[in-house]
Every structure is written in structure tokens, then in C-alpha cells.
Design brief:
This protein is an alpha/beta fold. It is built from eleven helices and 14 strands. The chain has two domains: 147 residues, no CATH class; 171 residues, 3-Layer(aba) Sandwich (Rossmann fold), CATH 3.40.50. The strands form three sheets. The chain has a six-stranded antiparallel β-sheet with strand order 6-7-3-4-5-8. Helix 3 packs across helix 11 and helix 4 runs parallel beside helix 5. The longest helix has 15 residues.
Length: 343
């Protein structure tokens, strides 16, 4: 059996010297290296920014989206949307374990969710069975490889598989919210009614306590009642987040001042300046969305003289999977939202 690098560089075809995520093409042959794990893939959870872009390009045609995904994987050896640069994650059952794979507790037949991006995961698709336009999930028959450095979660027995997959796909967002939000803070969640948004709202409401405030921001009128009736925000602003100055004015009208922390969960581009403008100059903006242009964010903050701390949306932080699944377990409201959409 061939020896592999723990970071997967042995799978990189182009360009030589790149890590798998930055590579243009990976070797997606399924002959296992000694430190790899092979997975029979059941479901791909395409990240929201990528799926939104594909739906737009394919006019919401599920078959066309499936063909687009197959074409990308055939060309690149992995699922990485060429326009957004993002991928998603997957669930499947372990079919083979290399003798030098670090975790000796795993067993063939266990169902796991990969917690690393599809943009660095060697993938083969044999058949696309179903593209679900409502929840970004794609049922397939295929195989994938997990490197020694890859993180994953064994799926829990007490939650439906598709629900757990949807929650784990955005686990970094509520976990980072838990780290960033302090008691007494005023927090804005942009994209508050979305999958990651409701999890962040719930966690922010816990963290701010009785002296803090959570302000949900979303585009459509019905989302105000949706969030308030579920106690996921103290206030809700209905506004297009791509309208930076308009949202800034709406924030001042609603809250009288900017917020301490902004969590950006939207799946559309051009919301960087809105996030910065509604945040105090000494505050924090966490860009979870993969639609974020960090060039726009950096230069936008410079342009308005803001010293805001901006955090890249790293999808991983310590214990993020357990924290997110525990939110589902402890909140009947959040669990009901996920059951309705993902089961």
C-alpha cells in the first residue's frame, strides 16, 4: 500500500506543491493510501453560496444542477464550484481504513459526516439520484477519500441523518458565535432566518443574557414574525443586506447605535460593507458566508475608517460539532425548524 502525506498532498495533480483545497485537480482514484479513509457516499450537502449560484445559473432545474455537479467533479476530482470556490460536506459509511489512519476507534460500516470541505476531498460520483432544491442536499452513489488530517463526526443515533448533516455543515457558525459574543453585547445576525442564521441567533440569545440584545436582519417581511415568534431575536430589521448605507440607517433608526458583534450568514455576495457599517469601529464582524470577498471587506473597512476586527469564517473551531448538535437537542424550536426542512 502506498504511503500518503497527512495533509493529502500526494493527491494533488495540479499545481504541484499546492495543498488539496487550493489545487485545481486532485487524483480521485479510489486506491487507498496507507493513512486514508474511504467512504461510500450517501449525501452531499452543497454549501449555501455554491448551491445558490448553481440554482441561479441552472434556472432552478434539478437535473441541470446535477449535471453541473458531475461535470465539476469529473474535471477537478473534487466538488469545488469554480465561481464561488466553495464546496460543502458529505455523509456516508466507512468502507475501508488504511493501516496508518490515526483514529483506531473507527470501524468499517460506521456512518460519518466529514467536517472538512468538499473542496479538498477526493470524490467520485457514479450516479446522482436526487437533487433537493429546498435544502441544498444531493443524494448520490459515489466514493470519497478522507486524509489523515481530515476532521469528521460519527453521526449520532438520536437525530435523523439528513438533519445532522445539515446542522454539521454550518457547525462553525454557532460555535464561533459562542466564542465571540459576551453577556451584555448587542449582536446583529445577517441572514438570521437561514440555516446557520437560526443557530447563531439561538446561541447569541443564550450568550447576551438579560442585559444584551440580538437583532436579526433578513430580506423578507414574513421573516420578522418567524424569528420573533420563536424567540430567536429581540428585534428584527427587514432590509436588503447588499444596500450598505440603507441598512446602516435602518440600524440606527432601530437601535440608535451600531452593534458590538455582527455575524454574517448570508449566501449572497456584496454584503461586506453592510456588515462593517452596522458594527462599532471597535467591534467584531464574523464573516461565516463563503460568498464573502475578503478584499471587499478589507478595503471597505479602510474606506470608511473603521478599525473593526474582521474574522474569516473558519468552519472549524474546537468542539463545534458537539455544540451544534447539542443546540438541536436542547431547543425544540430549532429542532422543529430543521425537522421541517431537512427530514
Amino acid at each position: 500500500m502506498k504511503q500518503g502525506c497527512q495533509f493529502g498532498t500526494h493527491r494533488v495533480i495540479l499545481p504541484i506543491g499546492a495543498l488539496p483545497q487550493a489545487a485545481q485537480k486532485l487524483d480521485n482514484t479510489m486506491d487507498l493510501y496507507d493513512n486514508e479513509l474511504k467512504i461510500n457516499v450517501k449525501t452531499l450537502n452543497i454549501d449555501s453560496a455554491s448551491f445558490t449560484q448553481m440554482k441561479r445559473v441552472c434556472n432552478n432545474d434539478a437535473d441541470a444542477i446535477g449535471q453541473m455537479i458531475s461535470s465539476i467533479v469529473t474535471e477537478r476530482g473534487k466538488m469545488q464550484n469554480p465561481e464561488t470556490g466553495s464546496g460543502g460536506m458529505l455523509i456516508g459509511t466507512i468502507s475501508e481504513i488504511g493501516p496508518k489512519f490515526p483514529d483506531k476507534t473507527l470501524k468499517v460500516g460506521q456512518m460519518i459526516a466529514t467536517l472538512v470541505s468538499l473542496t479538498l476531498t477526493p470524490l467520485q460520483i457514479k450516479t446522482i439520484k436526487h437533487v433537493n432544491l429546498s435544502n441544498d442536499q444531493v443524494e448520490i452513489e459515489g466514493e470519497a477519500i478522507l486524509f489523515a488530517s481530515g476532521i469528521y463526526a460519527v453521526l449520532p443515533d438520536d437525530l435523523p441523518v439528513t438533519l445532522a448533516l445539515a446542522a454539521l455543515d454550518v457547525a462553525g457558525a454557532p460555535a464561533q458565535t459562542a466564542k465571540l459574543v459576551k453577556p451584555g453585547d448587542t449582536v446583529a445576525i445577517i441572514g438570521a432566518a437561514g440555516k446557520s442564521g437560526v443557530l447563531c441567533c439561538y446561541q447569541a440569545m443564550k450568550n447576551v443574557g438579560p442585559t444584551g440584545k440580538v437583532i436579526g436582519i433578513d430580506r423578507f417581511d414574513h421573516q420578522k414574525e418567524y424569528l420573533l415568534s420563536r424567540n430567536l431575536a429581540h428585534e428584527v430589521i427587514i432590509h436588503d443586506a447588499t444596500d450598505a448605507f440603507g441598512l446602516y440607517e435602518a440600524m440606527l433608526q432601530s437601535n440608535k447605535e451600531q452593534v458590538d458583534v455582527t455575524i454574517n450568514c448570508v449566501s449572497l455576495p456584496n454584503t461586506e460593507n453592510s456588515s462593517i457599517m452596522i458594527t462599532k469601529k471597535t467591534g467584531i464582524v464574523y464573516f461565516f458566508s463563503m460568498a464573502t470577498s475578503f478584499t471587499k471587506a478589507a478595503l471597505g473597512a479602510e474606506g470608511i475608517g473603521s478599525d473593526v476586527t474582521m474574522i474569516i469564517g473558519n468552519g472549524y473551531t474546537h468542539n463545534h460539532a458537539n455544540l451544534t448538535l447539542d443546540i438541536i437537542r436542547e431547543s425544540q424550536v430549532i429542532k422543529a425548524i430543521f425537522l421541517e426542512k431537512y427530514v
